[in-house]
Every structure is written in C-alpha cells, then in structure tokens.
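>> Question from a student workshop board

For tomorrow's exercise we were told to take the sequence and the ligand below, predict the bound structure, and bring the output to class. My setup keeps failing. Could a helper post the expected result so I can at least see what it should look like? The ligand is adenosine-5'-triphosphate.
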Amino acid sequence: MAEPLALRAGTAGGVGGSASQARGARAGQVIGSSIAVRDAEKRYGHFHAVDHINLDIEPGEFITLLGPSGSGKTTLLNLLAGFQSLDGGEILVDGKPVHNVPTHKRGFGMVFQSYALFPNMTVTQNVAFPLRMAGVDRVTTERRVAETLEIMRLSAHANKSPSEMSGGQQQRVAIARAIVMRPKVVLMDEPLSALDRRLRESIQIEIRDLHQTIGSTILFVTHDQGEALTMSDRIAVLDAGKIVQIGRPLEIYRHPSNRFVASFVGESNLIEAEIVQKRGTTVTLKNRAGYVFDAESRDAIDVGRVTVLVRPERIAIHNEPTASSTPVTVTSAIFLGEILRIEAQMEGGDTLLIRCTDTARRPLPNIGDRLHVSWGPDDCWVLT
Ligand code: ATP
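>> Workshop helper replied:
Here is what the output should look like for this input. Compare the format with yours to find the bug.
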C-alpha cells in the first residue's frame, strides 16, 4: 500500500519533512515549506545577477518575485530549484540547507512559460507522469490524477492530447502535472506570459484558488505588476539583483519605498516639491506651480526637496476652482471604457496623469480645456 502522497512529496530529498505550521491549513492540505534565502549571491564574472539577497518565506505563503527584465528573478528561482548553484550565501528549506540536494530530490513542483507537455501522451498520462516516475501504485495514481484534473477543471479533457487543447488549457495541464505530487513548494516562472490578457486574468484567479486548496508555498516570477498585485500574499520587488522592497500588495502600491517601486508598480505622478512646514507626520509642500498641499510622510524629513507620489486615480477634478485646487490644462483625453485617462499640464510645467472612473459621468474634456485638480494628504506619499 502506498503511503499518502502528501507525506511522500513532503519527505522527498529529505528537505521538506519538518512539521512547520501553515497558516490556516485545512484538513487534507499540504503544509507548505518555509524557505530562507540568506545573503544569496550569483555572479557572472564581475556582474551580480543575484546580489546578496535575503528573503524569508513563511510556510504556505504565496510570494511573487516582481521586477523588470534582467533584474534577477529567474536566476533567484533557478537557485531555489537547484538548476544553478550559489556563489555565496545559502538557501534553507524548512530550516535545512539544500545546496547539496539535486533538483529532482528537492521535491518541488515547477511550471514554466512553455508548457513542455509530452505531445504523444493524453492529458491524463501527462498528469500521471510524476506519479509513475515515483513508483506510485495504479489505484492511487488514478485517484490522485482524477482529483487534480477536477481541481484544475480539466476532467472533461482527460483523454485529449495536448495538440487538441488551447494554450490556456495546456498551461492548466502543466500546472496539474506540477501539483499532482502535492509538493510542499511550487515554483512558477512567468507561466502566464504566453497567454492573452483575458485568459491570463482568469488563470490568475484559478492559481490563487489553487493555492488556497493545496496549501503549498508558491514562488511566482513575473514582470507584470497587475499579476503580482492580484495573486500574492507578499511581493518582493527586484531591481539589479537586489530586493528593493518586500511587502503586501496594498503596502507596495500605496507606500512604495522609492521612485523605482513607485514607477514600476502601477501608474504614478512623481512630483518634485519643497517642504514648507512639518507637523508630526504631516508635511506641507509646495511644487513648481506654487500649489501648496499636505502629504503624509513616515520618515523624519524636515526640510528640503522631496519627490511625492500621487496615484492618477487619487486626483479629484473640479470644473471650478476650490480652496484646495490648482488649475491644469488638458493635453490628452482618452475614453477607455470604465475610466477616462486624462493628461494635463500644471502651471509650472509638470504633467499630470489622471484616471477618472466613469461613475463620475464626466464628459470627455477637449485638448486645451482648463480644469481644476486637487488631492488630499491621504492621496499622496512622500518618497525617500
Ligand atoms: P527576464 O524577466 O527577462 O527573464 P530576469 O529578471 O528573470 O529577466 P535573469 O534571467 O535572472 O533576469 O537575469 C539576470 C541577469 O543575469 C541579466 O542581466 C542576465 O543578462 C544575466 N545572466 C543570466 N544568465 C546569464 C549567463 N548564463 N551568463 C551571463 N549573464 C547571465
């Protein structure tokens, strides 16, 4: 009689056996592994692809590595998978170093951009493949494959070959194959980037639900900030081989740590301004146009020039001047369905991007129209 698969996957390679407590684990769920990356380093000559990275991932957490092309996301994932070796530092899974554990013994599930399905096998045979390789008996294999196809809503396609399926369906088969062993860790490298936007969005939700169902720790690589915001418990933003910020999606979006994160995650207006007064955490600022506004700041900045982030959807538009508004001239206005996207110039020359939801029922302004805009202290964030 085969032992339960969750246990088999968990002990593979001897790296996943500890009884770490997953947050909110349900009966029958895998308890994902904790991962600790300590001062990890990967060099190519003098170039640091991964530059002294530290990262602690909780059991069962969904972490996204987000960053532009070349920031080191795939290299970090490859170091975790064991496809590449560290030049410095260490990686611990459930507290145990993995540098001597070969990839196939780490017991991780993996999904890549290319589906890499076996073209001559049916969906069922593809998903059953890891179980067959692990020597799992036929009855358990059939049950586990049927359960996994059900989770991935693929049961109706069980006997098709990959060539008879769409890209989205093939990627769901690849995900099913990656989770059929109920691994304690699943690594996903840009798995949705070959799919069109609608399909990507629907599979994003499926992967989130899947994470809730299986309880594995998931590390997901993407350069798509929307994808990262939608799916993750926490996002690690990478730039030039370093983690520049790690936090929950709301925190990263509302309180980015610097200009790079502010610009990379979401659309942003970065306004240069001078501090004219400070009361506790509230600072009064004046920009080039002479517009005076209050902003919240966490840091002890007292004087001088700062950059302030104002998200385009936080800017209020008025037809007439108000006590707290400043005039702008419209330079572009586009109707995008649920929102109006307006670009306008402030008097000092700064360009503002404004996103106005259609619930405001505002007519599309004309180029050259004069509007009045304002934002409050909660709508902006002083960057360091
Ligand atoms: P993308 O989103 O484009 O896949 P990424 O963030 O995943 O980018 P990596 O593939 O991790 O980036 O690459 C990080 C850096 O390391 C890049 O500048 C890349 O050119 C460099 N690099 C990766 N592999 C090698 C290699 N074998 N030899 C030399 N440089 C490499």
